[in-house]
Amino acid sequence: MYTYQLQDSLYINLTNRCTNSCVFCIRKKPEGMGVDLWLNREPSSEDIINEIPNPDLYKEIVFCGYGEPTIRLSQMLQICKYLKEFKTKIRLNTNGQGNLIWGEDIVPVLAEHINAISISLNAKDMKQYNQLCLPENKEQSYDAVIDFTIECQKYIPEVCLTVVDTISAYDIEVCRDIAKKLGTNFKVRHHIK
Fold first, then answer.
1. What is residue 10's DSSP assignment?
2. Helix H or strand E segment including 153
3. Where are the chain's structural domains?
4. CA distance 143 to 18
5. What pTM value is reported for the model?
6. Which CATH superfamily is domain 3-189 in?
């Protein structure tokens, strides 16, 4: 399933690939979140665009699936160019490793196309992040998420750091303080079991 609707938002599922393998991720369960999001092949930009003939029908369109959308940055930007013809809000849900993945600052180009970004912080420090998120790059990923967030604050109107409520209440508050210091919004996401 390349696109799926939740309430009045449409979600775009670009890839199964991710640079994290979070212990709490729903992609580890065959039933996922009630819809089958596992892709047998990655969709082209045209595949996605064909599934969204009327973007104005949605409150927002969100790049969020089983994988990390910025891995397919070129396709994501092509879809965004189509969506920008409409007035629909465009949001990216990301693990915040886009700059690390591409080896350059992708935030300015993202800012040309998206209105909001939700970045998964999920941990109060690198040690906890490595334990929970199991990133491919254990030495750089957590700092890369923080640096990416700082860059997003410069260019993107709505920036939100998120955590999943699998960490302690104390750790959630530490993460809330991190978001406050960085000047972002903060959201606690409920763990889907």
1. E
2. helix 141-155
3. 3-189
4. 17
5. 0.94
6. Aldolase class I (3.20.20.70)
